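We modelled the chain as a single entity of 117 amino acids. Its sequence is:
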Amino acid sequence: MNNLYKKALEAHNIMLDLHIDTKTTDPLFHKETEWFYETLFEVAHNIWEKYVDLWNNLTSLKLQEKKNKANKIINELKKEIEIYKENNKITLWTEDLLGSLSNSLENIEWSSKWFLK
């Protein structure tokens, strides 16, 4: 199942790239491929959840380590966005986008902190 998951996740990532890359060149293809990459993600997600349902583990991390790692992933990406925003000459639109992304991550950051108790 590990190989199936990796292939499905790779297919999702490639489809996501195709989807994003056609935003300004082919609106119809862009719109339809949203459904494609979402379905491919669901396939990967379902394969991996079935793997866990069959009493397997994806990592050797203990539960608290998983919670800490989830919080760390969110915090690090949020910091990277904020550093990028501070250290680069960007347009007002890009500044607004990065601020919005940082706010979204802050929302899930607080939720992830709740699990650290």
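As a brief sanity check on the tokenised model: The mean pLDDT is 96. The radius of gyration is 18 Å.
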